[in-house]
Amino acid sequence: MTLEQPENPDAAQAGRRERFGKLPERIRLEDTVEERPATVPDPAKDTYNADEWLVRNCL
Questions:
Q1: pLDDT level of residue 12 (50, 70, 90 thresholds)
Q2: What 3 state SS string does 10-58 have?
Q3: pTM
Q4: Residue 13 and residue 18: Cα distance in Å, rounded?
Q5: What's the pLDDT at 36?
Q6: Distant-in-sequence, close-in-space partners of 48: CB < 8 Å, separation ≥ 6
Q7: DSSP state at residue 8
Q8: What does the CA dihedral 10, 15, 18, 19 come to, rounded to 10 degrees?
Q9: What's the average model confidence in pLDDT over 21-41?
Q10: Opening angle at CA 22, ends 20 and 24, nearest 5
């Protein structure tokens, strides 16, 4: 990788100042948060029946 020296250092400085001389626009906190409605929990998902476990594994 070679670094090229600009012919005119003032032009290079002006180019850097044009590119990096100001901060980016601020982003509001409200624009960084995404809100989604919660899903309805599935009633059959976490059901546990001890009798069913016994029947499946012990008989």
A1: confident
A2: HHHHHHHHHHHCCCCCCCCHHHHCCCCCCCCCCCCCCCCCHHHHHHHHH
A3: 0.30
A4: 9
A5: 86
A6: none
A7: -
A8: -140
A9: 87
A10: 95
* Range from 9-13, 17-21, 45-49 carrying the lowest mean pLDDT: 45-49
CA atoms within 13 A on the CB side of 9: 0
More confident residue, 1 or 52: 52
- 8 Å CB contact between 40 and 46: no
Distance, CA of 50 to CA of 57 (rounded, Å): 11
